[in-house]
Design goal:
The structure is a homodimer. The first copy, chain A, is α+β, with helices and mostly antiparallel strands. Chain A contains 7 helices and 10 strands. In chain A, helix 1 crosses helix 3 and helix 2 crosses helix 3. The longest helix of chain A has 15 residues. The structure holds a DNA duplex (30 and 30 nucleotides).
DNA sequence: GCTGACAATTGGTATAGACAACTAGTTTTT
DNA sequence: AAAAACTAGTTGTCTATACCAATTGTCAGC
């Protein structure tokens, strides 16, 4: 089970063992695990070594300690539902729906002041403007407009957009996405959007704006979307 | 600087000192901090104790270690704009507004099916119901309803709520908040809410639902809020 | 000038032990 | 019967020490 002569640190081996016992269900959420001294004696290692293994698992949120009582298996951690940073396609799939898309516009335009600012470009610099209706199970879910620097992402085509834009950026161009800042607000559907979203006059929409940046901080894209409130709810899981 | 007779653990005191030196700029990103042995000798404590302090700061991302070289101050962490998990009070303060609150209702009621489910309680179990108008710069910003198990959080009073509910839970009761799941959607203001929010008929609101859990997985609270769309925008920073 | 050996310094892993603080149950006292 | 004292077991903090592994600089030898 644990090999003291192995070059793999003992605390790391023990971590692995406990992690597996939780994975396989041998240890259930709420279960009391053996005490630190018990592990130490059983494995013939120092208590501090056991402590190091357990501390790491506590920091990961798999276990929690209670002074005077013992150490317990934490409730199952929810997957981090960062639907913000995943693509629309992944987002819909994870919700059990079939994603689709209708291209409304795909062109290179000079950046207006707002877009230039968001992408840290000079005004009138060439940017792609991509407008799409996003479908879920064939029904309109959102209206989306993407802006990206045409100099940064060269040679975009309609085919690439239809396939997977993110795949192209990360795999083909080798650009690494670092972080995204997303803001959300509530609004009433505009008359311009209404025919595309097929909602009644005065219907609420969730307005999402996203700025995506590469690992080195370069702005990659600026996206504005309007989601139908009757079909879309944004969920986020926050760990302290 | 460090008091060995203090009941506050030494490693915790040292953590605080280093954290402050980073805050004040005495230690800049990229700086090499004193070695573990140096700290140990200077403070006349064991190296392991120093290590514990540094390890915690490394886990927080404030420092990073390099074997054979030393320990360095990490690049400035993006502020985690988790406006979801901070309280309304903190959220408003960080936006430069003065938070306020008007208590509409504070009572113990039997949990209905939905609330009981969200809090993992039996139906009709006693829960606090706290309804408030949240103000920012004296103007209504949101309507909020909080549900909490009356058996878990005993002895709540109006005074405690008005002061700081979270402070009471974490400091006085010693409960540790672990994570929160928050969902957001767009909606039209209901006629029941309208008089409190002072918005015209048909105005959009941002509906936020939050479930907060303790470290051990116990549901702590279930909160429903309606934010005025004309005054509130939710921002989130996502790191990959 | 370059290379290799060496030493000094750093963090990484591990030991053995001590006492404090807290919890839960048992026993004794009141 | 209730309260208090005790006990055994837990995690929390801390010490003192040892050796390992990686990095860096120095110095001798070619």
């Amino acid at each position: 089970m644990i090999d003291k002569r192995s070059p793999v640190p003992i605390y790391y081996q023990l971590e692995h063992v406990i992690r597996q016992q939780i994975d396989t269900g041998e240890l259930q959420p709420g279960d009391l695990i053996p005490s630190e001294r018990e592990y130490a004696e059983q494995l013939d290692v120092s208590r501090m070594t056991v402590r190091q293994a357990i501390t790491n698992l506590v920091n990961e949120g798999l276990l929690y300690r209670q002074k005077g009582r013992g150490t317990f298996v934490a409730e199952q951690k929810l997957e981090q539902n960062l639907s913000g940073l995943t693509s629309f396609t992944e987002d819909m799939r994870s919700r059990g729906m079939v994603p689709g898309s209708t291209l409304l516009a795909f062109q290179i335009v000079p950046a207006d002041k707002k877009v230039a600012d968001r992408l840290s470009l000079a005004e009138h610099a060439p940017v792609y403007e991509i407008k799409r209706i996003r479908l879920a199970d064939e029904v309109p879910m959102a209206l989306e407009t993407v802006y990206m620097s045409a100099n940064l992402i060269k040679g975009l085509s309609e085919a690439i957009i239809t396939a997977s834009l993110y795949h192209h950026i990360e795999e083909e161009l080798g650009l690494e996405i670092g972080r995204a800042v997303q803001s959300m607000e509530s609004a009433i559907v505009s008359e311009a959007e209404r025919p595309h979203l097929l909602v009644p006059k005065g219907a609420p929409v969730l307005l999402i704006e996203r700025h995506t940046f590469l690992k080195d901080g370069t702005p990659l894209e600026y996206v504005k979307s309007s989601y139908r409130a009757d079909r879309y709810k944004f969920t986020i899981d926050i760990n302290r």
